[in-house]
Design a protein that fits this description.
The protein is mainly α and 164 residues long. Helices cover 76% and strands 0% of the residues. It has one domain. It comes from Rhizobium paranaense. This is Putative membrane protein.
Length: 164
Protein backbone atom coordinates (compact mmCIF):
# COMPACT_ATOMS: atom_id res chain seq x y z
CA UNK A 1 0.00 0.00 0.00
CA UNK A 2 1.25 3.44 -0.87
CA UNK A 3 -0.35 6.86 -0.54
CA UNK A 4 1.89 8.37 -3.22
CA UNK A 5 -0.67 8.12 -6.08
CA UNK A 6 -3.25 9.82 -3.86
CA UNK A 7 -0.83 12.53 -2.75
CA UNK A 8 0.03 13.19 -6.40
CA UNK A 9 -3.66 13.20 -7.42
CA UNK A 10 -5.67 16.39 -8.04
CA UNK A 11 -7.20 18.06 -4.98
CA UNK A 12 -10.72 17.01 -5.99
CA UNK A 13 -9.72 13.34 -5.77
CA UNK A 14 -8.06 13.91 -2.41
CA UNK A 15 -11.20 15.59 -1.03
CA UNK A 16 -13.32 12.81 -2.49
CA UNK A 17 -11.27 10.09 -0.79
CA UNK A 18 -11.01 11.98 2.52
CA UNK A 19 -14.83 12.12 2.60
CA UNK A 20 -15.65 8.66 1.24
CA UNK A 21 -13.41 6.63 3.56
CA UNK A 22 -15.09 7.81 6.78
CA UNK A 23 -18.48 7.66 5.01
CA UNK A 24 -17.89 3.99 4.19
CA UNK A 25 -16.91 3.15 7.76
CA UNK A 26 -19.57 5.27 9.41
CA UNK A 27 -22.24 3.99 7.03
CA UNK A 28 -21.42 0.37 7.87
CA UNK A 29 -21.58 1.21 11.57
CA UNK A 30 -24.96 2.91 11.17
CA UNK A 31 -26.39 -0.02 9.22
CA UNK A 32 -25.69 -2.52 11.98
CA UNK A 33 -26.35 -0.41 15.08
CA UNK A 34 -29.74 0.45 16.66
CA UNK A 35 -31.79 2.99 14.74
CA UNK A 36 -33.65 6.06 15.96
CA UNK A 37 -31.37 6.85 18.88
CA UNK A 38 -29.86 10.32 19.36
CA UNK A 39 -26.48 8.83 18.40
CA UNK A 40 -27.96 7.40 15.21
CA UNK A 41 -29.49 10.74 14.27
CA UNK A 42 -26.23 12.65 14.91
CA UNK A 43 -24.03 10.17 13.08
CA UNK A 44 -26.58 9.94 10.28
CA UNK A 45 -26.36 13.70 9.73
CA UNK A 46 -22.58 13.47 9.63
CA UNK A 47 -22.80 10.55 7.19
CA UNK A 48 -25.17 12.44 4.90
CA UNK A 49 -22.87 15.50 4.96
CA UNK A 50 -19.94 13.28 4.01
CA UNK A 51 -21.97 11.76 1.16
CA UNK A 52 -22.84 15.23 -0.16
CA UNK A 53 -19.13 16.13 -0.11
CA UNK A 54 -18.34 12.88 -1.92
CA UNK A 55 -20.93 13.61 -4.61
CA UNK A 56 -20.03 17.27 -5.07
CA UNK A 57 -16.30 16.59 -5.24
CA UNK A 58 -16.87 13.97 -7.95
CA UNK A 59 -18.08 16.65 -10.35
CA UNK A 60 -14.51 17.97 -10.38
CA UNK A 61 -12.99 14.57 -11.18
CA UNK A 62 -12.64 13.97 -14.90
CA UNK A 63 -10.37 10.93 -15.19
CA UNK A 64 -12.89 9.18 -17.47
CA UNK A 65 -13.71 11.83 -20.06
CA UNK A 66 -16.61 10.54 -22.13
CA UNK A 67 -18.88 13.58 -22.50
CA UNK A 68 -17.46 17.08 -21.86
CA UNK A 69 -15.35 15.77 -18.99
CA UNK A 70 -18.09 13.65 -17.48
CA UNK A 71 -18.86 9.94 -17.53
CA UNK A 72 -21.74 7.69 -16.50
CA UNK A 73 -20.30 7.53 -12.98
CA UNK A 74 -21.32 11.18 -12.57
CA UNK A 75 -24.95 10.06 -12.84
CA UNK A 76 -24.31 8.24 -9.57
CA UNK A 77 -23.32 11.59 -8.06
CA UNK A 78 -26.63 13.13 -9.10
CA UNK A 79 -28.41 10.07 -7.69
CA UNK A 80 -26.43 10.47 -4.44
CA UNK A 81 -27.43 14.10 -4.01
CA UNK A 82 -31.10 13.33 -4.71
CA UNK A 83 -30.98 10.35 -2.36
CA UNK A 84 -29.44 12.40 0.45
CA UNK A 85 -32.29 14.87 0.09
CA UNK A 86 -34.82 12.01 0.02
CA UNK A 87 -33.32 10.45 3.14
CA UNK A 88 -33.63 13.74 5.01
CA UNK A 89 -37.17 14.48 3.84
CA UNK A 90 -38.41 10.99 4.69
CA UNK A 91 -36.76 11.02 8.12
CA UNK A 92 -38.37 14.39 8.89
CA UNK A 93 -41.76 13.07 7.74
CA UNK A 94 -41.23 9.97 9.90
CA UNK A 95 -41.51 7.79 6.80
CA UNK A 96 -38.91 5.45 8.23
CA UNK A 97 -39.39 2.62 5.73
CA UNK A 98 -38.65 4.96 2.80
CA UNK A 99 -35.75 6.49 4.73
CA UNK A 100 -34.24 3.03 5.35
CA UNK A 101 -34.70 1.99 1.72
CA UNK A 102 -33.05 5.15 0.42
CA UNK A 103 -30.14 5.03 2.86
CA UNK A 104 -29.43 1.36 2.16
CA UNK A 105 -29.47 1.87 -1.59
CA UNK A 106 -27.30 4.95 -1.17
CA UNK A 107 -24.77 3.03 0.90
CA UNK A 108 -24.64 -0.11 -1.21
CA UNK A 109 -24.81 1.70 -4.56
CA UNK A 110 -22.97 4.90 -3.78
CA UNK A 111 -20.31 3.61 -1.42
CA UNK A 112 -19.89 -0.12 -2.01
CA UNK A 113 -20.66 -0.15 -5.73
CA UNK A 114 -18.67 2.93 -6.62
CA UNK A 115 -15.92 1.81 -4.24
CA UNK A 116 -15.60 -1.46 -6.10
CA UNK A 117 -15.33 0.50 -9.35
CA UNK A 118 -12.61 2.70 -7.83
CA UNK A 119 -10.51 -0.37 -6.99
CA UNK A 120 -10.36 -1.63 -10.58
CA UNK A 121 -6.91 -1.90 -12.18
CA UNK A 122 -5.76 1.38 -13.69
CA UNK A 123 -7.59 3.52 -11.11
CA UNK A 124 -5.81 5.62 -8.48
CA UNK A 125 -7.30 3.73 -5.54
CA UNK A 126 -6.07 0.44 -7.03
CA UNK A 127 -2.58 1.93 -7.07
CA UNK A 128 -3.00 3.13 -3.48
CA UNK A 129 -4.43 -0.07 -2.04
CA UNK A 130 -2.79 -2.75 -4.16
CA UNK A 131 0.22 -1.14 -5.87
CA UNK A 132 -1.49 -1.82 -9.20
CA UNK A 133 -2.02 -5.56 -8.62
CA UNK A 134 -4.83 -6.92 -10.80
CA UNK A 135 -5.92 -9.95 -8.74
CA UNK A 136 -5.92 -8.43 -5.24
CA UNK A 137 -8.92 -6.11 -5.80
CA UNK A 138 -11.04 -9.05 -6.95
CA UNK A 139 -10.19 -10.98 -3.79
CA UNK A 140 -10.89 -7.96 -1.60
CA UNK A 141 -14.17 -7.28 -3.40
CA UNK A 142 -15.21 -10.90 -2.87
CA UNK A 143 -14.32 -10.64 0.82
CA UNK A 144 -16.24 -7.38 1.23
CA UNK A 145 -19.22 -8.89 -0.58
CA UNK A 146 -19.27 -11.91 1.73
CA UNK A 147 -18.93 -9.67 4.82
CA UNK A 148 -21.76 -7.39 3.66
CA UNK A 149 -24.02 -10.33 2.89
CA UNK A 150 -23.28 -11.75 6.33
CA UNK A 151 -23.97 -8.44 8.07
CA UNK A 152 -27.19 -7.76 6.20
CA UNK A 153 -28.48 -11.31 6.67
CA UNK A 154 -27.63 -11.11 10.38
CA UNK A 155 -29.55 -7.82 10.62
CA UNK A 156 -32.52 -9.31 8.74
CA UNK A 157 -32.68 -12.30 11.08
CA UNK A 158 -32.45 -10.00 14.10
CA UNK A 159 -35.34 -7.90 12.79
CA UNK A 160 -37.45 -10.99 12.10
CA UNK A 161 -36.98 -12.17 15.69
CA UNK A 162 -38.01 -8.74 17.00
CA UNK A 163 -41.23 -8.67 14.97
CA UNK A 164 -42.37 -12.10 16.10
Amino acid sequence: MTLEPLIDAPIAIQIHVVAVVPAALLGAYLLVRPKGTPRHRLLGKIWLALMVIVALSSFFIHQINMFYGFSPIHLLSVYTLLSCWGAIVNALKHNIEAHKRIVRSLYFGGVVGAGAFALLPGRIMNEVAFDGDELAPLLVAAGIGVALLWLTSKEMWRRRRLTR
